[in-house]
Amino acid sequence: MEPWSIIAKRWPDRNLEIRRRCAVDADYRSIVSDYVEARSALDRWRRSDPAGSGRVADYERLVRELDAEIERSFVTHD
């Protein structure tokens, strides 16, 4: 899946805002990039690992943490 489509799917109303901020903020761009990578990896592991895999749980936790960090950025920039 295309990286920006992952962001657009998760935050359809914030996609443009996220893109703009990524263009000027290297730290934020890194967080968004990490989210996209973790989300992609989670999707791959869900397809290939057995149910209840610790790897899937680890990536679910990482995705939740990065998701929360991006969500917090909306509050501080609204």
Please give a structural write-up:
This protein has 78 residues and is an all-alpha fold. The chain has one domain (3-77). 83% of the residues lie in helices and 0% in strands. It is built from 4 helices and no strands. It has helices at residues 3-10, 15-24, 26-48, 54-77. The protein is elongated, with a radius of gyration of 13 Å. The mean pLDDT is 91.
Looking at this protein, list some descriptive labels:
single chain; 78 residues; mainly alpha; elongated
Structural class computed from helices and strand pairing: mainly alpha
Main β-sheet description: none
* N- to C-terminal distance: 29 Å
Strand content: under 5%
Supply Rg.
Answer: 13 Å
As a percent range, the share of helical residues equals over 70%
- Kindly report the oligomeric state of this protein: single chain
Q: SSE order in H/E notation?
A: HHHH
**Number of E strands:** 0
Give the helices and strands, then pairings.
Blueprint: H1 3-10, H2 15-24, H3 26-48, H4 54-77
Helix pairs in contact: 1-3, 2-3, 3-4
Summarize it.
With 78 residues, this protein is mostly helical. The protein is 83% helix and 0% strand.
